[in-house]
Amino acid sequence: MTDANAARRHGNSWTSAMRLTSHNTMGQRDHAVRNIVNTVLGVRDQLLRDATKYEALGEGSEQAIQLKNSQLRTQGESDHVH
């Protein structure tokens, strides 16, 4: 085998290794991006659930305040009648 053939064979081996490494690196990058996207979507979903709960609590609090104000008005009116 000549030095040129050995160099060519070594070069082909090196090129194959680079392609494999590049492919593995791209696969890892794609996997990492999918993980990031899934994490962001999970956070978004949790924020939407929390916002819905918070809104429901706010509506319940508003109804409780209105009821209490109504009771106070009724009590105040009955105090004036006597």
Structure description:
There is one protein chain. By secondary structure, the protein is mostly helical. The protein has one helix and no strands. It has one helix at residues 3-81.
Looking at this protein, list some descriptive labels:
single chain; 82 residues; mainly alpha; rod-shaped; WXG100 family type VII secretion target
Please give the number of β-strands: 0
Class inferred from helices and paired strands: mainly alpha
Average of per-residue pLDDT values: 82
Q: How would you sum up the global shape?
A: rod-shaped
Order of helices and strands: H
Biggest sheet features: none
SS strand fraction = under 5%
Low-confidence stretches: none
Query: What radius of gyration results from the CA coordinates?
Result: 35 Å
Gap from first CA to last CA = 119 Å
Q: Helix count, per DSSP?
A: 1
The percentage helix is over 70%
List the helices and strands and how they pair.
Blueprint: H1 3-81
